[in-house]
Specification:
The chain is an all-alpha fold and 107 residues long. The chain has 5 helices and no strands.
Length: 107
Amino acid sequence: MGLAIYFTLLFIPGPQFGSPLTSVLISGVAVPIGLLFFVCDIAYGIVAGTIDKASDVPPMMASAVTQVAPLIVLFFAAAQFIAWFDWSNMGTVLAIKTAGVLGSTTR
């Protein structure tokens, strides 16, 4: 039902949302996706019997974050390295120097 409402709002023309490709519903799509997963996970936990009361949810969420934390740190370090590489134009310099080295060895 929520998905039907979301797509209906997405394709309603008007100044409140803009065109479908520039809509707030597309640029902020992480929130509806997150809410959809949250609601589905809670419903599954209740049906499976792993969630008995509302106070069972926060420890489960904390456990999930602690398991993913090393990966987040790794992605942050990789993103910083890539951003530095792009900012310094070192990729272009390395490509030109490597092409020169490879060109001199093939002659």
